[in-house]
Amino acid sequence: MTVASEAVGSLVANIILSVLATTAVTPRFLARKKSGAALKLNDWTILGCLISAIAISISAIYAAATDLHGVPWNLMTRESFITFRKLEFSDILLCHFIFGLTKLSIILFYKRIFSIGHFTTFANIALVAASLFISLSFFLVVFCSKPVNSFWTTIPMLEDSQDVIDPPALISAIAGVDIALDVVVLSLPLPPMKKLHMSAQKRWYIAGIFLLGAL
């Protein structure tokens, strides 16, 4: 198997990220199995993220191994170009699922450990917002080109002629909403922690642990 030099960096990065994601998620399920605890909804959502991340890595490995990645489009056959664009399209959609499902998993986890005051109400609002983000970003990406298959059938010289929505503007808008939701989700546990019966220093330690999710 020969891999284009331009594709090596992406290939290595995808493999490393898949290994890191698997290493981060696996202990959770091993702990659940060892303790006999039932899997909760936040476990299943994070598993969905892991499966999606591995799928993207497999796509990248396949693209690199079959000369679909790192090869100039003008050196590709028509079939190879279409296959490459289909993989790119599916990767974009999977990324949106990962972003959204990660938020859902974190919010559901918060709901399990905080049940004081109005936290549940705010958490449910955040759940609805994150769910809408997943749905809307999915449909906007799918139908940004008309017809849908023109995303992978349009030749590069006519790029953007098939777009119903301006892709750069769409990506910027989705990224902005994504970041705003991240801030909201990561801020959710801060108000309840003020009511914990412990020193301010310990509360800051706990807040720091929660804010590690920003990484």
Task: Furnish the topology, listing elements before pairings.
Layout: H1 5-35, H2 41-65, H3 78-113, H4 119-142, H5 150-153, H6 167-187, H7 190-193, H8 200-211
Helix pairs in contact: 1-2, 2-3, 3-4, 3-6, 4-6
Describe what this molecule looks like in 3D.
This protein is mainly alpha-helical. It is built from eight helices and no strands. The protein has helices spanning 5-35, 41-65, 78-113, 119-142, 150-153, 167-187, 190-193, 200-211. α3 (78-113) packs antiparallel against α4 (119-142), α3 (78-113) packs parallel to α6 and α4 (119-142) packs antiparallel against α6 (167-187). The radius of gyration is 21 Å and the shape is globular. The protein starts with a helix and ends with a helix. The model has no long low-confidence stretch (mean pLDDT 82).
Count of extended strands:
0
Question: What is the 3D shape?
Answer: globular
By DSSP (H or I, 4+ residues per run), the number of helices equals 8
Helix % is over 70%
Largest sheet: none
N→C terminal distance: 35 Å
Structural category? mainly alpha
Low-confidence stretches: none
Q: Mean pLDDT, rounded to whole units?
A: 82
Beta strand %? under 5%
Write down the secondary-structure element order. HHHHHHHH
User: Rounded to an integer, what's the Rg over CA atoms?
Assistant: 21 Å
